[in-house]
Specification:
Blueprint: H1 3-25, H2 42-60, H3 63-84, H4 86-91, H5 96-120, H6 126-132, H7 134-157, H8 159-162, H9 173-193, H10 197-222, H11 227-248, H12 264-267
Helix pairs in contact: 1-2, 1-11, 2-3, 3-5, 5-6, 5-7, 5-11, 7-9, 9-10, 10-11
Protein backbone atom coordinates (compact mmCIF):
# COMPACT_ATOMS: atom_id res chain seq x y z
CA UNK A 1 0.00 0.00 0.00
CA UNK A 2 1.30 3.44 -0.89
CA UNK A 3 2.34 5.80 1.90
CA UNK A 4 -0.34 8.40 1.11
CA UNK A 5 -3.07 5.77 0.84
CA UNK A 6 -2.01 4.19 4.15
CA UNK A 7 -2.07 7.53 5.97
CA UNK A 8 -5.50 8.35 4.52
CA UNK A 9 -6.84 4.98 5.66
CA UNK A 10 -5.52 5.55 9.18
CA UNK A 11 -7.02 9.04 9.28
CA UNK A 12 -10.37 7.81 7.94
CA UNK A 13 -10.57 5.05 10.55
CA UNK A 14 -9.63 7.56 13.24
CA UNK A 15 -12.46 9.90 12.21
CA UNK A 16 -14.89 6.97 12.21
CA UNK A 17 -13.64 6.03 15.68
CA UNK A 18 -14.53 9.54 16.86
CA UNK A 19 -18.06 8.86 15.69
CA UNK A 20 -18.15 5.51 17.47
CA UNK A 21 -16.91 7.15 20.67
CA UNK A 22 -19.69 9.69 20.32
CA UNK A 23 -22.29 6.93 20.00
CA UNK A 24 -20.98 4.93 22.95
CA UNK A 25 -20.57 7.93 25.24
CA UNK A 26 -23.73 9.71 24.04
CA UNK A 27 -21.81 12.98 24.13
CA UNK A 28 -19.00 14.81 22.33
CA UNK A 29 -15.95 12.77 21.34
CA UNK A 30 -12.76 14.37 22.74
CA UNK A 31 -11.89 16.18 19.50
CA UNK A 32 -15.24 17.99 19.75
CA UNK A 33 -14.91 18.87 23.42
CA UNK A 34 -15.16 22.42 24.70
CA UNK A 35 -18.79 23.29 23.98
CA UNK A 36 -20.16 25.43 26.84
CA UNK A 37 -23.02 23.87 28.78
CA UNK A 38 -25.04 27.02 28.09
CA UNK A 39 -25.19 26.31 24.34
CA UNK A 40 -28.82 25.62 23.28
CA UNK A 41 -29.57 22.11 22.01
CA UNK A 42 -26.13 20.97 23.10
CA UNK A 43 -27.06 17.29 22.83
CA UNK A 44 -28.28 17.74 19.27
CA UNK A 45 -24.93 19.33 18.46
CA UNK A 46 -23.18 16.29 19.93
CA UNK A 47 -25.27 14.05 17.67
CA UNK A 48 -24.34 16.22 14.69
CA UNK A 49 -20.63 15.87 15.49
CA UNK A 50 -21.03 12.11 15.70
CA UNK A 51 -22.89 12.05 12.38
CA UNK A 52 -20.28 14.22 10.64
CA UNK A 53 -17.47 12.02 11.97
CA UNK A 54 -19.08 8.82 10.72
CA UNK A 55 -20.07 10.23 7.32
CA UNK A 56 -16.73 11.93 6.64
CA UNK A 57 -14.70 8.96 7.87
CA UNK A 58 -16.66 6.55 5.69
CA UNK A 59 -16.39 8.91 2.73
CA UNK A 60 -12.61 9.05 3.07
CA UNK A 61 -12.45 5.26 2.66
CA UNK A 62 -13.62 5.47 -0.95
CA UNK A 63 -11.75 7.25 -3.72
CA UNK A 64 -14.92 8.59 -5.36
CA UNK A 65 -16.10 10.33 -2.19
CA UNK A 66 -12.73 11.26 -0.67
CA UNK A 67 -12.70 14.85 -1.91
CA UNK A 68 -16.23 15.86 -0.77
CA UNK A 69 -15.74 14.04 2.55
CA UNK A 70 -12.46 15.84 3.18
CA UNK A 71 -14.03 19.17 2.21
CA UNK A 72 -16.99 18.65 4.54
CA UNK A 73 -14.67 17.72 7.41
CA UNK A 74 -12.42 20.72 6.69
CA UNK A 75 -15.33 23.20 6.67
CA UNK A 76 -16.99 21.67 9.74
CA UNK A 77 -13.74 21.72 11.74
CA UNK A 78 -13.06 25.28 10.62
CA UNK A 79 -16.49 26.52 11.69
CA UNK A 80 -16.28 24.53 14.94
CA UNK A 81 -12.94 26.10 15.80
CA UNK A 82 -14.18 29.59 14.99
CA UNK A 83 -17.23 29.15 17.22
CA UNK A 84 -15.84 27.21 20.19
CA UNK A 85 -12.04 27.49 20.24
CA UNK A 86 -11.02 30.85 18.76
CA UNK A 87 -12.98 32.75 21.45
CA UNK A 88 -10.39 31.46 23.96
CA UNK A 89 -7.75 33.56 22.17
CA UNK A 90 -10.05 36.59 22.06
CA UNK A 91 -10.76 36.36 25.80
CA UNK A 92 -7.21 35.42 26.87
CA UNK A 93 -4.75 36.48 24.14
CA UNK A 94 -1.76 36.34 26.50
CA UNK A 95 -2.47 32.85 27.86
CA UNK A 96 -0.54 30.21 25.92
CA UNK A 97 -3.01 27.38 26.45
CA UNK A 98 -5.52 29.31 24.32
CA UNK A 99 -3.19 28.85 21.34
CA UNK A 100 -2.39 25.24 22.22
CA UNK A 101 -6.09 24.38 22.29
CA UNK A 102 -6.66 26.06 18.92
CA UNK A 103 -3.53 24.36 17.63
CA UNK A 104 -5.04 20.94 18.23
CA UNK A 105 -7.96 21.84 15.99
CA UNK A 106 -5.61 23.45 13.47
CA UNK A 107 -3.74 20.14 13.03
CA UNK A 108 -7.00 18.34 12.24
CA UNK A 109 -8.08 21.14 9.89
CA UNK A 110 -4.73 20.94 8.10
CA UNK A 111 -5.05 17.17 7.71
CA UNK A 112 -8.52 17.47 6.20
CA UNK A 113 -7.42 20.27 3.86
CA UNK A 114 -4.39 18.29 2.66
CA UNK A 115 -6.65 15.36 1.83
CA UNK A 116 -8.99 17.61 -0.11
CA UNK A 117 -6.12 19.25 -2.00
CA UNK A 118 -4.67 15.87 -2.97
CA UNK A 119 -7.99 14.27 -3.96
CA UNK A 120 -9.98 17.12 -5.50
CA UNK A 121 -8.26 17.53 -8.86
CA UNK A 122 -9.39 20.39 -11.10
CA UNK A 123 -12.64 22.13 -10.14
CA UNK A 124 -14.63 24.76 -12.00
CA UNK A 125 -15.73 26.49 -8.80
CA UNK A 126 -13.18 29.18 -7.86
CA UNK A 127 -13.45 28.49 -4.13
CA UNK A 128 -13.08 24.73 -4.51
CA UNK A 129 -10.24 25.06 -7.00
CA UNK A 130 -8.42 27.44 -4.65
CA UNK A 131 -8.42 24.97 -1.78
CA UNK A 132 -7.92 22.00 -4.08
CA UNK A 133 -4.68 23.20 -5.64
CA UNK A 134 -1.18 24.10 -4.55
CA UNK A 135 -2.49 27.07 -2.59
CA UNK A 136 -4.65 24.73 -0.54
CA UNK A 137 -1.62 22.66 0.38
CA UNK A 138 0.38 25.75 1.25
CA UNK A 139 -2.39 27.01 3.53
CA UNK A 140 -2.55 23.61 5.22
CA UNK A 141 1.22 23.53 5.77
CA UNK A 142 1.28 27.03 7.28
CA UNK A 143 -1.69 26.24 9.51
CA UNK A 144 -0.04 23.02 10.65
CA UNK A 145 3.25 24.82 11.25
CA UNK A 146 1.58 27.49 13.40
CA UNK A 147 -0.05 24.74 15.45
CA UNK A 148 3.34 23.11 16.03
CA UNK A 149 4.79 26.42 17.17
CA UNK A 150 1.95 26.75 19.68
CA UNK A 151 2.69 23.23 20.93
CA UNK A 152 6.36 24.11 21.29
CA UNK A 153 5.72 27.19 23.40
CA UNK A 154 3.34 25.23 25.62
CA UNK A 155 6.19 22.87 26.56
CA UNK A 156 8.09 25.84 27.96
CA UNK A 157 5.12 27.71 29.43
CA UNK A 158 3.73 24.65 31.20
CA UNK A 159 6.88 22.74 32.03
CA UNK A 160 5.46 21.73 35.42
CA UNK A 161 2.67 19.83 33.64
CA UNK A 162 4.84 18.35 30.90
CA UNK A 163 7.65 16.93 33.03
CA UNK A 164 5.48 14.49 35.06
CA UNK A 165 4.22 12.94 31.81
CA UNK A 166 7.71 11.83 30.72
CA UNK A 167 8.08 8.06 31.34
CA UNK A 168 10.29 7.38 34.35
CA UNK A 169 12.58 5.03 32.40
CA UNK A 170 13.66 7.89 30.11
CA UNK A 171 15.30 9.77 33.01
CA UNK A 172 16.09 13.53 32.98
CA UNK A 173 12.45 14.46 32.23
CA UNK A 174 13.19 18.20 32.04
CA UNK A 175 15.58 17.57 29.14
CA UNK A 176 12.97 15.59 27.20
CA UNK A 177 10.30 18.21 27.87
CA UNK A 178 12.55 20.95 26.51
CA UNK A 179 13.70 18.81 23.57
CA UNK A 180 10.15 18.06 22.43
CA UNK A 181 9.36 21.75 22.71
CA UNK A 182 12.35 22.67 20.56
CA UNK A 183 11.48 20.04 17.94
CA UNK A 184 7.94 21.41 17.73
CA UNK A 185 9.22 24.97 17.30
CA UNK A 186 11.81 24.08 14.67
CA UNK A 187 9.42 21.82 12.76
CA UNK A 188 6.76 24.51 12.83
CA UNK A 189 9.13 27.11 11.43
CA UNK A 190 10.12 24.70 8.66
CA UNK A 191 6.48 24.27 7.65
CA UNK A 192 5.67 27.99 7.83
CA UNK A 193 8.73 29.15 5.88
CA UNK A 194 8.71 26.26 3.40
CA UNK A 195 12.40 25.54 4.03
CA UNK A 196 12.97 21.81 4.66
CA UNK A 197 9.20 21.51 5.10
CA UNK A 198 9.23 17.79 4.37
CA UNK A 199 11.78 17.24 7.14
CA UNK A 200 9.71 19.34 9.53
CA UNK A 201 6.55 17.41 8.71
CA UNK A 202 8.32 14.08 9.22
CA UNK A 203 9.94 15.11 12.51
CA UNK A 204 6.69 16.39 13.97
CA UNK A 205 4.70 13.35 12.85
CA UNK A 206 7.22 10.98 14.44
CA UNK A 207 7.25 13.03 17.64
CA UNK A 208 3.47 13.20 18.00
CA UNK A 209 3.21 9.44 17.36
CA UNK A 210 5.94 8.72 19.94
CA UNK A 211 4.21 10.91 22.52
CA UNK A 212 0.97 9.02 21.89
CA UNK A 213 2.68 5.65 22.27
CA UNK A 214 5.16 6.38 25.09
CA UNK A 215 3.16 8.79 27.24
CA UNK A 216 -0.48 7.84 26.77
CA UNK A 217 -0.05 4.21 25.65
CA UNK A 218 1.15 2.90 29.05
CA UNK A 219 -1.70 4.71 30.78
CA UNK A 220 -4.21 2.99 28.51
CA UNK A 221 -2.63 -0.41 29.14
CA UNK A 222 -2.63 0.16 32.90
CA UNK A 223 -6.38 0.72 32.85
CA UNK A 224 -6.02 3.69 35.21
CA UNK A 225 -6.96 6.53 32.88
CA UNK A 226 -8.61 9.55 34.41
CA UNK A 227 -11.27 11.37 32.38
CA UNK A 228 -8.74 14.07 31.52
CA UNK A 229 -6.09 11.57 30.47
CA UNK A 230 -8.64 9.69 28.34
CA UNK A 231 -9.44 12.88 26.49
CA UNK A 232 -5.75 13.70 26.00
CA UNK A 233 -5.09 10.16 24.73
CA UNK A 234 -7.82 10.30 22.09
CA UNK A 235 -6.81 13.79 20.97
CA UNK A 236 -3.17 12.72 20.70
CA UNK A 237 -4.22 9.72 18.61
CA UNK A 238 -6.22 11.99 16.29
CA UNK A 239 -3.33 14.46 16.03
CA UNK A 240 -1.00 11.59 15.08
CA UNK A 241 -3.33 10.56 12.27
CA UNK A 242 -3.54 14.12 10.92
CA UNK A 243 0.22 14.67 11.28
CA UNK A 244 0.93 11.60 9.15
CA UNK A 245 -1.45 12.90 6.48
CA UNK A 246 0.66 16.06 6.24
CA UNK A 247 3.96 14.15 6.30
CA UNK A 248 2.81 11.67 3.62
CA UNK A 249 1.75 14.52 1.31
CA UNK A 250 5.44 15.34 0.82
CA UNK A 251 6.19 11.87 -0.54
CA UNK A 252 8.41 12.14 -3.60
CA UNK A 253 9.56 15.68 -2.85
CA UNK A 254 13.09 16.76 -1.84
CA UNK A 255 13.82 17.01 1.88
CA UNK A 256 15.16 20.57 1.86
CA UNK A 257 14.74 22.95 -1.11
CA UNK A 258 11.30 21.94 -2.29
CA UNK A 259 8.99 24.88 -1.67
CA UNK A 260 8.55 25.73 -5.35
CA UNK A 261 7.98 22.18 -6.55
CA UNK A 262 4.55 20.67 -6.96
CA UNK A 263 3.63 17.49 -5.13
CA UNK A 264 3.49 14.45 -7.34
CA UNK A 265 -0.27 14.12 -6.80
CA UNK A 266 -0.83 17.62 -8.14
CA UNK A 267 1.81 17.57 -10.85
CA UNK A 268 0.30 14.60 -12.63
Amino acid sequence: MQWKAASQLFFALTVIAMGVIGILSDTFAPIWAGVPSSVPDRQLLAYLCTFVSLVCGAGLLMKRTSAPAALLLFVYLLVWTALFKFPFIVRQPLVEVSYQSNGENAVLIAGALVLYALNAGERTNVFLNFFGGRMGLRIAYVLYGLALIAFGFSHFAYLEFTVPLVPAWMHVPVFWAYLTGVIYLVSGLMLVTGFAARLGAALSAVQIALITLLVWGPMVLSGRLSAGHWQETVVSWALSAAAWIVAASFDGRPWVLESRQAPAALAS
